[in-house]
């Protein structure tokens, strides 16, 4: 599934409209954190592990849709980790990270079941691009209208003005729709009342905070009622929307 992000990129989503899950396995903690940040910027859910044993535990618990796997790990070879991963997650695409650029090393990784590889040093953009290609080819992500914003199980079609959470359709007024669209274009970002007033009502903050509070309460009744809350208040700062935990 794909949709267009607030930054203009085409996001990949699972068929159930939840974020793609990626497991990053590398014993260089700063590098693993940089990779994780880049993948989270894509809107994906990320977990990391610093060794082979941790990778196997995380894979069993997390059930990733794709894996970034360093060949050189402190406790076992990345090829051995891949072999054990394939027993439980046979079809998960795996992108190898390797400091070795010899042809025989590339062949060994691909023969062992890896789907692609990049050599260190690499650009984060290249890793993300290669991983997106693997996910698309694996069939994990399927096509979806580019006009759709998705946060967790909440979807908003900017063209048809249809809104749904899970299998339930949600009817919103025009103002409620604009408020929700602004929140969903900025997932996990705290938006102040002044920002919301300026964007949704098109006038500067001037003591009208009660209007924002009122419409946030309307949205909560329609979006969150009887479900895990997605719309949150940060006291003294504003509001944000994020997938339900």
Secondary structure layout:
Blueprint: E1 2-4, E2 10-12, E3 21-25, H1 29-41, E4 45-49, H2 52-62, E5 66-70, H3 78-88, E6 94-98, H4 103-111, E7 116-119, H5 124-138, E8 148-151, E9 154-157, E10 163-165, E11 168-170, H6 174-184, H7 193-201, H8 209-224, E12 231-234, E13 238-241
Helix pairs in contact: 1-5, 2-3, 6-7, 6-8, 7-8
Largest sheet: 5 strands, parallel
Give the ordered list of helices and strands: EEEHEHEHEHEHEEEEHHHEE
Instruction: Give the beta-strand count.
Output: 13
Instruction: Note the beta-strand portion.
Output: 15-25%
Q: What gyration radius follows from the Cα positions, in whole Å?
A: 21 Å
Q: In what order do the strands lie side by side in the largest sheet? A: 4-3-5-6-7
Mean pLDDT: 83
Helix tally?
Answer: 8
Low-confidence stretches: 1-9
Distance between the termini: 21 Å
